[in-house]
Amino acid sequence: MRPLLITDCDEVLLHMVRHFGVWLGETHDIDFAPNGGDFSTSMKRRDGGPAPAREEMWAMLDQFFPAEMDRQTLVPHAREALAALSESADIVILTNLQDQCRQPRIEQLARFGIAHRVECNQGGKGDPVARLVAEHGNPVTVFVDDLAVHHDSVARHAPQVHRLHMISEPALAPNVPPAPAAHARIDDWVAAEAWIAARFAAGEHAA
Asked: Is residue 12 helix, strand or coil?
């Protein structure tokens, strides 16, 4: 049985917040300084008006995805790491986007030379991770994501999964502490590939 890697996309495989910030400035005249918290608290209107409410923030994200996805850039070494790991493992990209963004995301990743199964999700990732693990026969599995809330969700729904916290955006990573429910925090793919490969080679579920 082949091991399984379940990885997020934004701020793991592709840079997102830096390009979202540029777009906010160009389109909405908003300065964006991500602080590791709610995106809405990182937004400041240039005209001095009230900060966008969370509902406005979600609406802006819906404008960015999928229409502005071509702005996104590849995280260094991500493609090479997935290619190496895919020689011995199955890979699923589990991305928190609306379902209509699935095909645009598949096409976007393919342009970067990343062609693996893509699944969209809304809400916590613990349940979909548990389903994917069961579908693959409960192999040794590693989950990679930038958000602590998803590591907590996976820890509750699929505790046997190894959990790696990664934030590939250098401007954001120093402001975000390691996820308490993750087994490790690594923010670059060279080291992450080695950590994941070691979990696969050991052939054991997480304790």
From this structure: coil
C-beta separation of 122 from 87 below 8 A: no
Digitized pLDDT (tens) for each residue of the chain, 207 residues in all = 999 999 999 999 999 999 999 999 999 999 998 877 667 788 899 999 998 888 998 899 999 999 999 999 999 999 999 999 999 999 999 999 999 999 999 999 999 999 999 999 999 999 999 999 999 999 999 999 999 999 999 999 999 999 999 999 998 999 899 999 999 999 999 999 999 999 999 999 998
Residue/partner pairs of 60-64 with CB below 8 Å, 24 or more apart: 60/24, 60/28, 61/20, 62/98, 63/27, 64/20, 64/23
Spatial neighbors of 158 by CB under 8 A, at least 6 apart, are 126, 129, 130, 133, 141, 143
- Torsion angle, CA of 20/22/26/27, rounded to 10 degrees? 10
Q: CB-side exposure of 141: number of CA atoms within 13 Å?
A: 24
Q: Determine the distance from the C-alpha atom of residue 126 to the mean position of all C-alpha atoms in its chain, rounded to a whole number.
A: 14
User: How many residues belong to the chain?
Assistant: 207
Helix and strand element counts for the chain (H, E): 7, 10
pTM of the model: 0.95
